[in-house]
Amino acid sequence: MIQRDLTIINRLGLHARATAKLVQLLSTFRCQATLEARGREVNAKSIMGVMLLAAGTGSTVVLRVDGEDEQAAADAVAALFERRFDEDS
Length: 89
Hints:
Residues 1-88 form the HPr domain. Pfam families: PTS-HPr (PF00381). With 89 residues, the protein is of the alpha+beta class. The protein is built from 3 helices and 4 strands. It has one domain: HPr-like (Histidine-containing Protein, Chain: A). A 4-stranded antiparallel beta sheet has the order 1-4-2-3. It has helices spanning 16-26, 47-52, 70-82; strands at residues 2-7, 32-37, 40-43, 60-66.
């Protein structure tokens, strides 16, 4: 299992479009994935679950991935966060 703390740095936080990008990205991997914020842990491959976190700009979320392609999934998600979900110019 890999665990990473990720800070949300895009302007709008984990809103619908950013959440959809995250879930779509994770759906390409076979590993299990969860996100945790403010004591709540959700399935990171579920749009509704991730939206329930209501994680805004500056929030830190904990990504946990477990499975055969966990390293690639963790790296891809970290890159998506670093790119600000391709939203901010």
